[in-house]
Amino acid sequence: MAEIKDPENTIIIELKDGSVTIELLADVAPKHAERMKELARAGAYDNVAFHRVIDGFMAQTGDVEHANMEKDYNPRRAGTGGSDKPDLPAEFSKLPHDRGTLGAARSANPNSANSQFFINFSDNHFLNGQYTVYGRVIEGMEHVDAIAKGEPPANPDRMISVKVAADA
Hints:
By secondary structure, the chain is mainly β. The chain has 2 helices and 10 strands; from the N terminus they run E-E-H-E-E-E-E-E-E-H-E-E. The chain has helices spanning 30-41, 141-145; strands spanning 10-15, 18-24, 48-49, 52-54, 58-61, 101-104, 117-120, 133-139, 158-159, 161-164. The chain has an 8-stranded antiparallel sheet. It has a two-stranded antiparallel ribbon with strand order 3-9.
């Protein structure tokens, strides 16, 4: 079991193979960390597909509008939606996009991140300074590595549940 230093800023994602524990970097990207907790507490991330998973690069999920596999799942639209909350301003930092870091997915507009995020499979330093880093996997990266690959995957994996550790 990972040592959870700050349960209020720790996310636990249940995947088919086990739990992934993510430490949110609220001191670095407070708005992004707060949004993830808000959506997790609302149950918005539960059953949301990993709609874009590129081997050696990253696994993307978090489209709460079109990618809930239990409710109105639309594989063609998965990855095009967000939440009913306003988009977030970029919170760029000097933190590198290393293996296991969480990045905010967005459109070409740097201030368009909403609910989608990706977990880096490897050090993707070409993303540094272009996408907000707001968390890191502290346990369970082997479960992230096992997520079905594809754009979109033929049989996508999903986040079974997403909880704030303080509530679990």
